[in-house]
Amino acid sequence: MLTNFSLRSRIFISMIFWVVIAFILIASVTVYQYSEQNRDYHADRMERKEEQIKQSIDLALQKTTFPVTTENLGLIFRDEIYEIALVQNINFNIYDLQGQLIKSSRPKFEIDSISTCLDAEVLNNLASSRNKRYVEQKSAAGYSYQASYTYIDDKRFKHVGILNLPYFEDNSFNDKELKEILLRLTGAYLLLMLLAIGLAYFISKYITRSLQTISDRLNQTDLTKRNEKIIVENPSEEIGKLITSYNEMIDELEISAAKLAKGEREQAWREMAKQVAHEIKNPLTPMRLSVQSFERKFDPNDPDITKKVSEFSKTLIQQIDTMSSIASAFSNFANMPAQQNETLNVVKIVKMAVDIFDENYIHFSSDEEEIIAKLDRTQLIRVVTNLVKNATQAIVNVEAPNVLVTVSKEGDFVKMTVEDNGVGISMESKDKVFEPKFTTKTSGMGLGLGMVKNIVETYKGTINFTTEPGKGTIFTVRFPIANAGANM
């Protein structure tokens, strides 16, 4: 259950829990101790009363003029029993050896409530007991009491009767005292509880302070930047080991990040070099073949030599232009766009970029007439044209092609979407869309979307897309809106 709480909460709750448990245990032990004490007190008191009554009975038997027999007990204690009961302040009964009531110190109107004949179980237990004494628990009128049974002996220690002493326990004083003690104990523990709550709060805060520092620093750990080490004054041994491990990990991460960054840069340049070499080889091959063919077929005396030279030149110029466009594309991709503090009406610029395309299936829509942002005009146009160009290439084989460009305001951002109903992007290609040199087309270098992403992120914007194969794709670009009061 406590696993859902923080460490600080668990420490706090645990301390309070043990204080409550301690109070319950002490209260239980106190009640048990009083109960045992009361039981021992009443047992001792009953034995003393019984012994005092027996001494009075023995004294009465010594003074009597009647023969000490079971039959004469009623005569011997006819008046004496009341005096003994008055002196000892307790009533008692005398039975014969068969359990028949002979005499009781109780008034006559109470004798009816006294058993006139003892149970055989009482007689057997009394006879079989080692100290010739038997105590049983009884109840009368809703009250429980103890009844002791012991033999009355003559001068020769011969049993002549049975003494029965009903003993009612009066626990009112002890119960009152117990309640007072429990009240005092409760008050003391309430004070202790308040102290424990305060102590638990500060102890849990102190214990978890270092852990919270470590937790915050772990949450801030970023592999893409330099991370600060944790410094805690006078940490405990366990926290110190954890801090040392974290700081060592940070050192190792920095070394690994540096090696990784270097390796990634080298790998990126190798991949870029391979891509450039591959793209340049494509036009070089037909150029080489054209030169070889022209060399074999060159005849200065050919009447059409001028026409053939012209065609040969056009072929070479076409391939050279292709190589130039390749170089320009890689140059544009490599050069990160610098931020320009040019305040633009994005709606106007995007519409102008869309109007460059003559296709009638390309549409522009915006509910706003003006949305101001600080962007570079040229870079924004490059973003729009690249996305629209991609959309047009995705709907080549669609019967009713449609490309919709929209601009709207979304909170503190200007939102631009380019939607097409083309072939969509497959699941395998989704994660590679913005990678340089990735393309699904048979021509091109796959640098367009990578360049768009670089431009958008340079201006602290975002770009993402949703797609459904066979139904189309929606690219969404968001740029921060300029501060209020900006002018075009």
What's the CATH topology label of the largest domain? Answer: Beta-Lactamase
The CATH level-2 architecture of the largest domain is identified as: 2-Layer Sandwich
What is the residue-averaged pLDDT? 78
- The termini sit apart by 61 Å
Description of the structure:
The protein has 488 residues and is of the alpha+beta class. The chain has three domains: 7-175, Beta-Lactamase, CATH 3.30.450; 238-334; 342-480, Heat Shock Protein 90 (2-Layer Sandwich). Helices cover 54% and strands 16% of the residues. It contains eleven helices and twelve strands. The protein has helices at residues 7-63, 73-76, 80-88, 108-111, 120-128, 172-220, 237-297, 305-334, 346-355, 377-394, 448-458; strands at residues 93-95, 101-104, 133-140, 143-153, 159-167, 343-345, 362-366, 372-374, 403-410, 413-420, 462-468, 472-480. It has a five-stranded antiparallel β-sheet, with helices on both faces. α10 (377-394) runs antiparallel to α11.
List the helices and strands and how they pair.
Blueprint: H1 7-63, H2 73-76, H3 80-88, E1 93-95, E2 101-104, H4 108-111, H5 120-128, E3 133-140, E4 143-153, E5 159-167, H6 172-220, H7 237-297, H8 305-334, E6 343-345, H9 346-355, E7 362-366, E8 372-374, H10 377-394, E9 403-410, E10 413-420, H11 448-458, E11 462-468, E12 472-480
Parallel strand pairs: 7-9
Antiparallel strand pairs: 1-2, 1-5, 3-4, 4-5, 6-8, 9-10, 10-12, 11-12
Helix pairs in contact: 1-3, 1-6, 7-8, 9-10, 10-11
